[in-house]
Amino acid sequence: MSGFSGFSGFSGFFGGGQSGRRAPGGIDLDGVKPWTRAAGSVSGREDGDERAAARDRSWVDKCLRWCAAEFGEQAVRREFAVPTAGFLPTDLTVLTGRYQRARILELVDRIGAVMGADTRDVDLRVFAPGALDPDHAGRSQTVGRYHRTDGRDVIEVDLEYVERPADLAGLIAHELGHLRLTGEGRLRAPWSHSDKEKLTDLVTVYLGMGVFTANAAHSYATLRRGYTVLPMGDLTSRTLNGASRNDTVHRLGYLTPDQFAHALARCARLRGEPDPTWARHLEPGIRAAVHRTLAEAPPGPA
Question: Which of 2, 68, 104, 263 is deepest in the core (most CB within 10 A)?
Fold first, then answer.
């Protein structure tokens, strides 16, 4: 999806200067156009959904304040990671066995350094596609998971994603978000499962990996399998947004692209960045929404 704000630029073509004109079939060319994207929106909300959008933004702001109190206000000001050759491994598809696993573990350590996670004792496990869900082949295949076993943090990832290192990094960031929340015992108050997963996504943004997780949330693929999230950090291949089995829109995590865009814009403001350089690495729709939110949002904290 692009960052177009609507089709108002075509008013001359439709004769918008003549008030009240109607096209054949009775279409009002000067009235509200249902295809026009709402301001600040990636997905194109209608005006009637603005109250829901406002609730989403308020919830994101509340959770970002929680992140500031929990991780410190300086955490958001560390360098944001971006998908460059210097950050992502480029040889995952040519390596096999323990050499490939070692390279993925290097990526885990690199992402952990960005997010402030202690990965020295993380047990990384890799598995073939579908290995964790042999009874669900072709349906909900688990692609990543975090859990604690015998006092150790365990991260499991699907080897299918070595062909897409940026998506693999987003998957690992989500699991390290669980490590920082659950593994470090930070979820002291009761949270619903849905809110825990959304908060995990927000933690990736606040702690510097938001470019990767937001892009995954906005990614469009022709693959048979996409992303979704299950309890305890399980990432599976079904789409989270209720898309049909044949729909090619897939996303990673519980936050919508609009929520990611709002969170990224808020973090940019907290970082004192009116025009953040890392935003150029975002998918076009999210990048446009981030810049619109930065232009529209009043000065001050989230």
Answer: 263
| Predicted TM-score (pTM) of this structure | 0.73
Residue 5 identity (one-letter amino acid): S
Closest by CA position to 172, among listed 162, 186, 182: 162
Q: What is the pLDDT of residues 53-81, one digit of tens each?
A: 889 999 999 999 999 999 999 999 999 99
Residue 280 pLDDT class (50, 70, 90 cuts): very high
CA-nearest of 148, 254, 161, 261 to 215 is 261
CA distance 174 to 156: 12
Q: Are 271 and 64 in contact (CB under 8 A)?
A: no
Give domain limits for the chain.
1-36, 49-296
Query: Which pLDDT tens digit goes with each residue over 183-206?
Result: 999 988 778 877 888 999 999 999
